[in-house]
Amino acid sequence: xxxxxxxxxxxxxxxxxxxxxxxxxxxxxxxxxxxxxxxxxxxxxxxxxxxxxxxxxxxxxxxxxxxxxxxxxxxxxxxxxxxxxxxxxxxxxxxxxxxxxxxxxxxxxxxxxxxxxxxxxxxxxxxxxxxxxxxxxxxxxxxxxxxxxxxxxxxxxxxxxxxxxxxxxxxxxxxxxxxxxxxxxxxxxxxxxxxxxxxxxxxxxxxxxxxxxxxxxxx
Amino acid sequence: xxxxxxxxxxxxxxxxxxxxxxxxxxxxxxxxxxxxxxxxxxxxxxxxxxxxxxxxxxxxxxxxxxxxxxxxxxxxxxxxxxxxxxxxxxxxxxxxxxxxxxxxxxxxxxxxxxxxxxxxxxxxxxxxxxxxxxxxxxxxxxxxxxxxxxxxxxxxxxxxxxxxxxxxxxxxxxxxxxxxxxxxxxxxxxxxxxxxxxxxxxxxxxxxxxxxxxxxxxxxxxxxxxxxxxxxxxxxxxxxxxxxxxxxxxxxxxxxxxxxxxxxxxxxxxxxxxxxxxxxxxxxxxxxxxxxxxxxxxxxxxxxxxxxxxxxxxxxxxxxxxxxxxxxxxxxxxxxxxxxxxxxxxxxxxxxxxxxxxxxxxxxxxxxxxxx
Lengths: 219, 372
Hints:
Chain A: It comes from Pieris brassicae (White butterfly). Chain A: One of its GO terms (molecular function) is RNA binding. Chain A: This is Exoribonuclease phosphorolytic domain-containing protein. Chain A: Belongs to the RNase PH family. The complex is a heterodimer. Chain A is an alpha+beta fold. Chain A has helices spanning about 70-90, 110-125, 155-160, 185-219; strands at about 15-20, 25-30, 35-45, 60-65, 100-105, 135-140, 150, 160-170, 175-180. In chain A, helix 1 crosses helix 2. Chain A is globular. In chain B, a hairpin with a 3-residue loop joins strand 11 (about 190-200) and strand 12. Chain B has helices at about 10-20, 95-110, 145-160, 210-215, 255-285, 325-330, 330-335; strands at about 35-40, 45-50, 55-65, 75-80, 120-125, 130-140, 160, 165-170, 170-175, 185, 190-200, 205, 230-235, 240-245, 340-345, 350-355. Helices cover about 25% and strands about 25% of the residues of chain B. Chain B is an alpha+beta fold. Chain B is built from seven helices and 16 strands. The chains are: A alpha+beta, B alpha+beta. The interface of A and B includes residues 25, 60 and 62 of A.
């Protein structure tokens, strides 16, 4: 399967503002379609001796939903984002320190987790922490008739047979994180992976665009 | 991470300029920062920013069994969450004195002032009532959290609409928003908390910034009157609902009176702004315009250190007065310096004086080795 086959896709319009919060070392607010997420990064910080690590920085990720009591799905999102960030951040440069990433959901119209991963990446870029590569998350859904829908809406997710989310790195476009729900065939998974990989280019282009506009102000 | 301590020089400087009638950000004593209210796509979701302080509030509701002593009243629950997003010194999922204090003040202001019609939240007496939960999330802490959080809570409560219910025999049917129009919460009055920082014995600063809050709470060595933070809860009818003092005892009785008078004016203006925001949001929703937090993302605000984002400025200084073109040409301007009207003239030993210029200025020599 060749990536050039799927050139007819479009992602939801993305809108981003960096430095949204004045107290954090880095912050970003990202809207992907109607889903909006706010992320802040603080670090490297001085932390308790018990949680310090000799080899690398201790990464702490907090995901906070808009309202209601904290629940298990928030913890799941935290662990996905933490594992993704751990591969991206060059933690060995900051031993015995802590890095705190806080994510606040503002609107959820589907694709909350992919938006949160992308927003966290932008906040990390803004904070100036050293990173091996940037990451881009893309999600897709498999509907009942076996068609793949890139970046599904809230209703499409509810009626989908399966949803798949992939996170790619910027250098070799290798898969960093993948998580799925529902039942699907191996072929569908491979197709979804290739399509999302091709679509991740658009996200990386968007990152470049955002960073370029902000660099103009500095320079 | 531990909170960064404020240095002595910062403390003395802030105290000195405030005693001299100035504030770090160029405001006058009674001036508040810019208030902005943005609503989300759901009912009862709003983000309030007071200057750079930002608070998100979300109201949610569920049907629960009422309390036994109040069988016909709904329940309201306020939960304040200060995450490390607000400032690095806050720890995640940990109740600190700050959180508890903020939560208690909001409860006092909204539960104890009885501004919400709890009886209208009753569905079946002794069996089913609505329970409203207000989640207040602090996004950015740049001082005066109480005022910002209270405006956010009030805006969220006033904006919130709960689903309609119908009773069929013993059954209660909850209609979704698409089926039946939701019902707004009944508010008898709109109380807001306004914060004043007390400096010395008679200076009142409204809407203190982070550094002003910290400086007014710290103790002074020279035995002068200590300051404190005075929170006044005031509704739109100019009735006080809450008074709270943190810090040193007040030396001057008039200061409370002065704060209440000022709060009554300010409280009304805040409620007016809030009501106007809710009405304009309602009319937009009636026109089926989609309202979303994505609207607050702008491209104007790019770097936290440019122009309008300068947090410290002179009293008569407006960052917007400078247009970007003149900034670029600054270097050229330097060369066309107008000749000075004054001239430096040596007078007494080791001193010089400014005198109206007679001719072109030239270098002068002041001998410093002269004997007295």
